[in-house]
């Protein structure tokens, strides 16, 4: 049954239908003032004459259709998501594989909904934990989980002085956890929110090292058999320290600390071209070879070494200069066309701007938690697209599985992706972190669980306490500290 109701310039239809129960619905439409409106007089006429056609026309009018749409139940996608607030932000520290790892857990007002982010600054973990628990928690409580950009921008300036590595890592933990939460709410993996996949999985490089070129060759061949097409080759200890030259004079006289490392820069400069020559001869031309200089030789020596490596066509040479020596890049570019990766020690995304504009390097080598998380990393990645500079996110053992997953989600959605550094996740690590990225045939993949896809077992995490003993000092023969 339909009843007509007139109130000022509106006509109302009271529609009563019968089913299991009586149901009524009332729809008001404006009858004057718009071109398509049916006038009150016309409507009265229809009713008076019982004009079926007229009433039918009224039902078909755009106003009726629109009014009807408003009163229908909205589809699920159009309902929007209820507001969710941050209830607590806290740090979880663990070291199942030896390196200190710090995770940020963002808890919310929605029961069971939380996010995880990587805040791992392994050398100063306790400082990051204090920044999270003593400052970030208070800053975040009661704020909307959805406004990631605003949270990032406001946290970035909330201490007035710009963030350094401690605060940036805390900020990264928050940022990645908010992306995790947003993706969980959207019921999709994070890479979908970043634009979706541009590749089916993420090509990775792994680390081959040894005390001699022969040991390096054996290691490269092992990884090639596993399907890796990109391998980083290093001689000596990590960062080429320790074993290239022995018995440093500073140790003999007790200068520095017992744990300080020694690097013979000349021995390193002589050994690296021989290593490349040996590996190329033994492993062929198909494998891509990478090498990290770790910023540990004089800038002019770095340039001469890279020129020598040209004939072995490396995929890239990483970190030739310390951050204090950026001006040397122009000379390097003029001297050689070997691709260069740079930026692991940068703190602020603005440090990438001019080198990218000047195309001083080819790969962006960012430690994502070091610059503040997914939000700033995506900005640098997208800027790189304009200059054909590719990504090569830092992915060593002092990145947590949550951080590795964040790397991988960005890689999947970034057109100008270059290569990803990978590590394997030990059984101990996987007893603490479930859903770790997986490696197959040289490719890394994330699972399709909503969010970043990695969870933490806090009881297991507590079994592996972190340590504050984490210093890495490398000296020359006379004891002078070498800047990485
Ligand atoms: Mg490096």
How does this model look, in words?
The chain is an alpha/beta fold and 484 residues long. The chain folds into 3 domains: 2-72, no CATH class; 86-188, Enolase-like, N-terminal domain (Enolase-like, domain 1, 2-Layer Sandwich); 192-475, Alpha-Beta Barrel (TIM Barrel), CATH 3.20.20.120. Helices cover 38% and strands 19% of the residues. The strands form 5 sheets. Strands 7, 8, 10, 11, 12, 13, 14, 15, 17 and 18 form a 10-stranded mixed sheet that branches. The chain has a 3-stranded antiparallel sheet with strand order 1-2-3, with helices on one face. The longest helix is centred in the middle third of the chain and has 22 residues, at 165-186. The protein starts with a strand and ends in a 9-residue tail after the last strand. The model is unreliable at 31-40 and 46-58 (pLDDT under 50). Bound molecules: magnesium ion. Residues 292, 294, 318-319, 344 line the site of magnesium ion (MG).
Please give the alpha-carbon distance between the first and last residues. Answer: 83 Å
User: Which term fits the overall shape?
Assistant: globular
Mean pLDDT: 88
**Could you name the CATH topology of the largest domain?**
TIM Barrel
Total DSSP helices: 18
Radius of gyration using CA atoms only = 31 Å
CATH class of the largest domain: Alpha Beta
């Amino acid at each position: 049954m339909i009843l007509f109701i007139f109130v000022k310039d509106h006509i109302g239809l009271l529609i009563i239908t019968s089913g299991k129960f009586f149901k009524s619905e009332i729809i008001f439409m404006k009858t004057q003032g718009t071109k398509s409106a049916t006038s009150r007089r016309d409507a009265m006429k229809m009713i008076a004459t019982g004009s079926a056609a007229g009433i039918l026309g009224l039902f078909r009018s755009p106003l009726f259709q629109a009014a009807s749409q408003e009163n229908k139940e909205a589809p699920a996608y159009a309902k929007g998501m209820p507001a969710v607030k941050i209830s607590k932000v806290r740090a979880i520290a663990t070291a199942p594989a030896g390196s200190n790892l710090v995770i940020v857990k963002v808890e919310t007002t929605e029961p069971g909904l939380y996010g995880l982010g990587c805040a791992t600054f392994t050398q100063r973990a306790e400082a990051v934990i204090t920044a999270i628990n003593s400052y970030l928690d208070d800053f975040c409580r009661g704020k909307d989980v959805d406004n990631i950009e605003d949270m990032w921008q406001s946290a970035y300036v909330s201490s007035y002085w710009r963030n350094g590595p401690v605060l940036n890592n805390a900020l990264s933990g928050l940022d990645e956890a908010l992306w995790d939460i947003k993706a969980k709410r959207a019921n999709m993996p994070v890479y979908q929110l970043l634009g979706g996949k541009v590749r089916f999985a993420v090509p990775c490089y792994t680390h081959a090292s040894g005390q001699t070129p022969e040991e390096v060759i054996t290691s490269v061949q092992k990884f090639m058999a596993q399907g890796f097409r990109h391998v980083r080759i290093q001689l000596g200890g990590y960062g080429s320290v320790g074993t290239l030259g022995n018995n440093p004079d500073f140790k003999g006289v007790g200068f520095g600390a017992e744990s300080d490392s020694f690097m013979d820069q000349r021995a390193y400069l002589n050994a690296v071209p021989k290593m490349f020559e040996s590996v190329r001869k033994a492993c062929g031309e198909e494998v891509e070879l990478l090498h990290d200089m770790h910023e540990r030789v004089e800038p002019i020596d770095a340039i001469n070494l890279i020129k020598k490596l040209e004939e072995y066509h490396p995929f890239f040479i990483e970190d030739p200069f310390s951050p204090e020596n950026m001006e040397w890049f122009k000379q390097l570019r003029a001297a050689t066309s070997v691709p260069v990766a740079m930026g692991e020690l940068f703190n602020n995304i603005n440090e990438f701007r001019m080198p990218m504009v000047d195309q001083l390097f080819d790969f962006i080598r960012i430690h994502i938690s070091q610059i503040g998380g997914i939000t700033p990393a995506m900005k640098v990645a997208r800027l790189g697209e304009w200059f054909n500079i590719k990504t090569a996110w830092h992915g060593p053992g002092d990145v947590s599985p949550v951080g590795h997953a964040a790397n991988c989600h960005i890689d999947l959605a970034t057109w100008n992706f270059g290569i990803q550094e990978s590590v394997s996740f030990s059984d101990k690590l996987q007893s603490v972190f479930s859903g770790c990225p997986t490696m197959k045939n040289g490719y890394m993949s994330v699972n399709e669980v909503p969010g970043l896809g990695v969870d933490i077992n806090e009881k297991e995490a507590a079994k592996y306490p972190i340590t504050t003993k984490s210093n890495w000092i490398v000296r020359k023969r006379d004891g002078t500290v070498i800047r990485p």
